[in-house]
Design goal:
The structure holds two protein chains of two kinds. By secondary structure, chain A is mainly alpha-helical. Chain A has a single domain (2-277), classed as ABC transporter involved in vitamin B12 uptake, BtuC, CATH 1.10.3470. Chain A contains eleven helices and four strands. In chain A, the strands form two sheets. In chain A, strands 1-4 form a two-stranded antiparallel sheet. Chain A has a two-stranded antiparallel sheet with strand order 2-3. Chain A is globular, with a radius of gyration of 19 Å. The relative contact order of chain A is 0.20. Chain B contains 16 helices and two strands. In chain B, strands 1-2 form a two-stranded antiparallel sheet. In chain B, a hairpin with a 2-residue loop joins strand 1 and strand 2 (180-181). Chain B starts with a helix and ends with a helix.
Amino acid sequence: MLIQQVFNGLALGMGYALIAVGYSLVFGILRLVNFSHGSIYAFGAEMAMVFIGFQFGIVPGIIAAMVLTGILGVCIDKVALEPLRKKKSMPIASLITTIGISNIVTQLLIVSLGSEKRNFPALFNFGSIQIGNIAVSSTQIMMCVVSLALMMVLVFIVYKTKIGLAMRASEQNAKAANMMGINVNFVISFTFFLAGVSATIAGVLVGSYYQIVYPNMGYMAGLKAFAAAVLGGIGSLPGALLGGLIVGVSESMAATFLGSTYRDSIAFIILIIVLIVRPHGLFGRKGITKV
Amino acid sequence: MTERIKKIIDTESILPGKSQSGMLHNIEVFTDRYKFILGVILAAALVVLPFVMGDQYLLTVTVKIGAYAILAMGLNILTGYTGLVSLGHAGFVAIGAYTASLLSVNAGADFFTSTLAGMVVAGLVGVLLGLPTLKVTGTYLSIITLGFGEIIKMIAMNWSSVTNGTLGVKNIPKPEIFGIEMTVGNYGMYYLMLALVVLTAVFCLMVVRSKTGRAFQAIRADEMASTMMGINITGYKILAFVISACICALGGSLYATVIGYIDPNTFNFDVSTLILSIVILGGMGTIRGMFVGAAILIAFPEVSRFLMEYRFVLYGVILVIMMRFRPQGILGWKSTLPYKLNSKVRAEIEKIEAEEKEGD
């Protein structure tokens, strides 16, 4: 029972980790909590459902959704956030803007698609594997595999490629990076694109796990993934993975042993304890202050 | 010497006015000159408003606007004046609403006693939430408040023996004065709201203009510098949390008795962001802005029913556009009027003046 829940939690946690990566990437560069990320995740999942519904193949459909969601992320940055950066307005202005955008995206989804829950095809349902008395479904395995692969790709992009170098440079000091000839605004847009893509993959995985998508799905998942990102140390990729797994496992544990009403809040309890004991999260670097 | 003080005061206070647009300055001078008459007109308008309006539905919306104005004034103390952004103020609203309505439903306490109890409980929790400010600042503090809001919701959901869990609290009694029940129908609720709003506004003004308020604003401007000036930062931050929590609990209690029913989902993250949006839309660090912000954001979904589902999209659009073009809020401007010394200081200056004359 316990081990079974750990496995369920790990699969779920992988989904959170993929959303958390989006928070981490954006926070790393902009020092901004992107509250619209939850709705971007929901947008990605809905778009995947719509495109898969067009019957031109599942993989092309998912890729189309990924690109579209990535473009949405870039648009959000270009239309709403970049002007604020140019004006050098207060950090809270950007924060409120992302809350407003989250509202716009979610409500537009509701207006155009309806607020009801819709079926999402189970993409990786090839039965389940029985190890002792633990059942691990193929969807769960696929979630872990795909998430880990994507994590590896992201780590590769950030640490081994030229654009990754530019991202890390902008993260350390945007002004100096700009002087070295890095187009910081392009880097930020690219970051938003990456965040959108990973959110879509998370949306597809979680959608096919529960076989359900709805416009408000990003609300709670977004908050929890955000908690996961902070837990692991926001701005750090391994931290996002670990945070996501902790949130996922503790959530499935809480749902089984404490009751289902606790499942949504356990992440926040852990979060507060961690923040008070270790204010910068488990993997966070200390003393990153941008003045 | 006194001439010099006067000169400094005059030039310093007039300087920002020159850079501002002339119209704003003229309006401010005008309102300042006819303050009394305008105040009387406004008060009269507010008193006769329910008779003019007469409609139950409109009045309920107005009372809701008032309740949210109180909540916004509460958050404004923390976010607008002290510069600590809270994303979990729905938690304090929930504490106030739950404590007050449970006391009045189960123990039969009247509105005012139970509201006071709610404010005390919220204040104590405010101390608790203020404590992390010792270690955590900036975005991380906002995150802790976010978690706090969710945890309060969870407690309301799971502590079913007291809070009745997800079913919520039903049939919250209306407040009574001298045995007369105050409902929206007999305008009692409206006047109660009005009294509470005025009380809160006066209290906020008093806090802001006191030494405490100046300490809050110093912390917002520069924490390091205010430490150097001998301000006990932690103490004042916790105090800001407590004041803010108490005011929000008051607003929550009022809201609960207006609606008559609360459940854990009444106080979700959306409420926290709504309160924050009101503060920012109206103008952080102003009290006048809270009324405008609350009126716009609460009345907007009601007024724009003809837009159907699109009206909720517009709510987000308003926030984004505001942040882009007027981040200081609709009514957020610095006063261009000369700084007014309070009577104590003025008396002291006069004393010095008299002494100097004697010396001559």
